[in-house]
């Protein structure tokens, strides 16, 4: 602190006194001491003469420059809002009145807010508020790495301290190459990059063989050599005429040394009735004219039954399942001297 006193002039014009400097210098000791006394007197004089105002009380978020504790009537003070608060209303100026009271200020300071944060893809955020000094913590889901700041803070200017981070998928470096990698029979084996950034265990290399594939009933294979087969080698099957392939047309030698599931050749069906009409593929046939008497596995045909109460006929369908065609129970085999006109297929349909 320094102060200046006018009117005391030992050698030249104004004399500036700086506490310690002056006191420690012997030549100036005597004038300094008396000067100090004058100063103290000068300071005390106004304190006792008038009413004064104390430091004004400040509302939430308000600020006042300087550290002055005492103000004189007529002193004007401009209030402001602290960092992170913005003025919303009211005059900022207050005046120390003669009664030693401050005039009222209507200034209100409200906390500044930052923008509402956007959701983080593949991650979560944690926050309670978005006002000045609030923080948001960001974390990424498993398998993702956080790029950017994991915590951001709402600053006094209403801006977030950092842009929001992003979560990017974890990447692994080059995978370890398995020992004896060159003799791998399976070139399709893959390692994968796991969520913690490590590779899955590298594969073991072993020679896979499947024994010679076996025939299927009523069908054939596209190969004739009875040898062992290697991993992922395939064999195709086909069925003899009228037989239907059920299952995959191709089998593959699996990693386990077994073949994948073999198909089967499904057997066609004979329509086991002697007389009467059938409905097949939208057309009716007398059974004696149905040549050859055979339908394939999975195919459907109908026979006719009689509704005795209503005296009408109706078609009932049945499906060929691997050589079995179940004739519906309601079907009655006509006698060998049957009259066409009385058959359920020939009369009015229900
Ligand atoms: C953010 O994380 C810190 C440190 O773990 C914790 O103290 C703080 O409460 C968290 N903030 C929020 C808003 O959850």
From TrEMBL:
Signal peptide (UniProt feature, chain positions): none
Molecular function GO labels: heparin binding
UniProtKB keywords: Disulfide bond, Glycoprotein, Heparin-binding, Repeat, Secreted, Signal, Sushi
UniProt superkingdom: Eukaryota
Main location: secreted
InterPro entries the UniProt entry points to: Compl-Cell_Adhes-Reg, Sushi/SCR/CCP_sf, Sushi_2, Sushi_SCR_CCP_dom
Disulfide bonds: 53-96, 140-167, 210-253
Sushi domain: residues covered: 51-111, 112-169, 208-267
GO CC term (a single one): extracellular region
UniProt function note: Binds to various kinds of negatively charged substances such as heparin, phospholipids, and dextran sulfate. May prevent activation of the intrinsic blood coagulation cascade by binding to phospholipids on the surface of damaged cells.
A matching Pfam family: Sushi_2
The name this protein goes by in its record: Beta-2-glycoprotein 1
UniProt-annotated location(s): Secreted
């Amino acid at each position: 602190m320094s102060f200046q006193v006018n009117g005391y002039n030992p050698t030249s014009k104004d004399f500036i006194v700086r506490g310690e400097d002056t006191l420690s210098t012997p030549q100036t000791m005597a004038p300094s001491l008396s000067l100090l006394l004058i100063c103290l007197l000068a300071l005390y004089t106004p304190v006792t003469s008038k009413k004064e105002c104390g430091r004004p009380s400040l509302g939430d978020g308000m600020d006042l420059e300087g550290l002055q504790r005492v103000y004189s009537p007529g002193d004007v003070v401009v209030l402001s809002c602290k960092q992170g608060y913005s003025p919303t209303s009211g005059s900022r100026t207050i005046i120390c009145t003669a009664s030693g009271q401050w005039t009222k200020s209507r200034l209100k300071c409200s906390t500044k807010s930052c923008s509402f944060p956007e959701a983080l893809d593949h991650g979560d955020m944690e926050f309670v508020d978005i006002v000045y000094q609030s923080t948001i913590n960001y974390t990424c889901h498993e398998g993702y790495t956080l790029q950017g700041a994991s915590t951001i803070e709402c600053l006094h200017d209403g801006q977030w301290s950092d842009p929001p981070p992003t979560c990017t998928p974890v990447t692994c470096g080059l995978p370890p190459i398995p020992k004896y990698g060159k003799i791998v029979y399976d070139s399709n084996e893959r390692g994968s990059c796991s969520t913690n950034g490590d590779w899955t265990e590298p594969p073991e290399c072993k020679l896979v063989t499947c024994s010679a594939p076996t025939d299927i009933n009523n069908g054939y294979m596209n190969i004739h050599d009875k040898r062992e087969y290697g991993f992922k080698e395939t064999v195709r099957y086909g069925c003899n005429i009228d037989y239907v392939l059920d299952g995959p047309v191709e089998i593959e030698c699996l990693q386990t040394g077994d073949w994948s599931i073999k198909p089967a050749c499904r057997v066609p069906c004979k329509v086991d009735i002697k007389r009467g009409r059938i409905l097949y593929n939208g057309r009716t046939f007398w059974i004696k004219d149905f040549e050859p008497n055979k339908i394939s596995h999975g195919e459907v045909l109908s026979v006719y039954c009689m509704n005795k109460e209503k005296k009408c006929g109706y078609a009932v369908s049945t499906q060929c399942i691997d050589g079995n065609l179940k004739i519906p129970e309601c079907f009655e085999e006509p006698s060998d001297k049957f009259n066409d006109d009385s058959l359920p297929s020939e009369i009015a349909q229900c």
